[in-house]
Design a protein that fits this description.
single chain, mainly alpha, 2 helices, elongated, Spore_coat_assembly_CotJB
C-alpha cells in the first residue's frame, strides 16, 4: 500500500464523519425519522469497514483501547494520519 491509498482512506473517513455528525444533529431533533436513522446506521457500518481497512494497512487510528495495535503497522510506524 502507498501514501496515496492512505490519504484516500483518510479522506473517506473524514467525509463519513461529517455526514455522521450532520445526521446525529438531525436525529437529535427528529428522532422518529426512520430513513435518517437507517442512513446513520449505514454510514456507521461503512465507517467501520474503511477504518478496519486503514488500520490493517497503516496502524491504529484511535487510542485508549479503541483500536488494535498490530505488527508491523503499530504505534511507532509512520507517517501518522496528521503527518500526511
Amino acid at each position: 500500500m502507498n501514501q496515496k491509498h492512505q490519504r484516500e482512506l483518510l479522506r473517506q473517513l473524514q467525509e463519513i464523519d461529517f455526514v455522521l455528525v450532520e445526521l446525529n444533529l438531525y436525529l437529535d431533533t427528529h428522532p422518529s425519522d426512520l430513513e435518517a436513522l437507517q442512513q446513520f446506521n449505514w454510514y456507521v457500518n461503512e465507517r467501520k469497514k474503511i477504518a478496519r481497512t486503514y488500520e490493517e494497512h497503516y496502524g491504529p487510528l484511535r487510542n485508549f483501547g479503541q483500536s488494535m495495535n498490530q505488527y508491523p503497522n503499530g504505534w511507532n510506524e509512520g507517517p501518522w494520519p496528521w503527518e500526511i
